[in-house]
Amino acid sequence: MLVCTKCYSVYKVSSLYSGSVKQNEEGKFVCPSTTCAGHELIEVDDQMVDVVLGLWTVGIRTTESCSGHPRIWSNNPYIILELDESSFAVVSMMRHLNNGRATIMVNQEEELIIIEGMEAPEGDISYKHKAQYEFFQFIYEVFNEMGSLKKLRA
């Protein structure tokens, strides 16, 4: 999905091919909304869109994320947040709710918070899917606690 960092509009990647999303002079994709005046779109994994938008709406900025791709790669789901006062409160809540479902690291030097799903044994697809599921369960529990995400997108 493509997400506008200004108006939070979400566009399918297929909109690149239909012509509704254009590129600017620098080759970056820009929001077609008239309220954004061509603000940059970023690519976000489909499963991470609600997570990223939920964080943005409460003032917590993300720098990157990945929903994990158990069948393709061996990476874990993760999200990296900018470190500031509002994200510290979320980290405290995450540590309280975690129960071993994610690793939460604060990097003071780079001013980042890294939340990563459980490590899965190489080649164990079923465990990778379980780790991915547990990561999202954990993140949505945090949102429920924050009261910022009312329901999952259909």
Question: Can you walk through the features of this model?
Answer:
The protein is α+β, with helices and mostly antiparallel strands. The protein has helices at 15-18, 49-57, 85-97, 125-146, and strands at 2-4, 10-11, 22-23, 29-30, 41-43, 62-66, 78-82, 102-107, 112-117. The protein folds into 2 domains: 1-42, no CATH class; 44-154, Aspartate Aminotransferase, domain 1, CATH 3.90.1150. The protein has 4 helices and 9 strands. The strands form 3 sheets. The protein has a 4-stranded antiparallel β-sheet with strand order 6-7-9-8. A hairpin with a 5-residue loop joins strand 3 (22-23) and strand 4 (29-30). Helix 3 packs across helix 4 (125-146). The longest helix has 22 residues, at 125-146. Mean pLDDT is 82; it is low at 148-154.
Protein topology:
Layout: E1 2-4, E2 10-11, H1 15-18, E3 22-23, E4 29-30, E5 41-43, H2 49-57, E6 62-66, E7 78-82, H3 85-97, E8 102-107, E9 112-117, H4 125-146
Antiparallel strand pairs: 1-2, 1-5, 3-4, 6-7, 7-9, 8-9
